[in-house]
Amino acid sequence: xxxxxxxxxxxxxxxxxxxxxxxxxxxxxxxxxxxxxxxxxxxxxxxxxxxxxxxxxxxxxxxxxxxxxxxxxxxxxxxxxxxxxxxxxxxxxxxxxxxxxxxxxxxxxxxxxxxxxxxxxxxxxxxxxxxxxxxxxxxxxxxxxxxxxxxxxxxxxxxxxxxxxxxxxxxxxxxxxxxxxxxxxxxxxxxxxxxxxxxxxxxxxxxxxxxxxxxxxxxxxxxxxxxxxxxxxxxxxxxxxxxxxxxxxxxxxxxxxxxxxxxxxxxxx
Length: 269
Ligand code: KIV
Description:
- By secondary structure, this protein is an alpha/beta fold.
- The chain has one domain (4-243): Phosphoenolpyruvate-binding domains (TIM Barrel, Alpha-Beta Barrel), CATH 3.20.20.
- It is built from twelve helices and eight strands.
- It has helices at residues 4-8, 24-32, 44-47, 59-71, 91-104, 119-128, 143-146, 156-172, 184-193, 214-217, 234-251, 262-268; strands spanning 16-20, 37-40, 77-81, 109-113, 132-137, 176-180, 198-201, 209-212.
- It has an eight-stranded parallel β-barrel with strand order 1-2-3-4-5-6-7-8, surrounded by six helices.
- α2 packs across α4 (59-71) and α4 (59-71) packs parallel to α5 (91-104).
- The structure holds 3-methyl-2-oxobutanoic acid.
- The site of 3-methyl-2-oxobutanoic acid has 11 residues, from β6.
């Protein structure tokens, strides 16, 4: 698995794969598949905590999920998302929160949803030894301000602002940049302008890598955004297994005759 400097050096070379994980067994599967970067995304809020957005996700929730992902992997590069308002409001609190995910939970880097307010913070965290992945374009923690999960950088002014912020975060020391839900020509222009790699989600084919949400990729989500291709039907598999379980118990087929294995159960528990 690559390190932070390895990922930084992957710009313009082989495509970078990044995928979310939120628990130990999933992280172990993602690592075994050879994914370059595992993101403990605050998308855990929508995907597994039952929230409507990432806004309510807390530091305790991110810390718990980050620790689980780290424990589920051997040497994966684990990036932990900083949840809404955990960074940016005060410098001391930002360092404390980012430091917690690195120092106590074992993440290798943090990801910040960025704006003008995170340039100086990125430099400060990097100077302290906390690798930062920047995130621009659609930043879902701003959903209330944006009025929805809408595509960003769609006019010249907004596109220029994203490009400028990308360059400023690179100069501040960010080792890579996630670009979410922006036009592909803007993603291509940002990728061309930066030395650090760009990792796109809904940003077209011209970034240095791609990131998606685990549940979308394996087909577990009940809804996924149009740009998130499903590579499996885990939801269908789960529904089938659950139907079979209910049928088996209701019909008496399970557990059936234990075949004299009770003693083995005793030993197991
Ligand atoms: O939280 C998340 O999963 C993310 C990715 C979609 C980039 O930020």
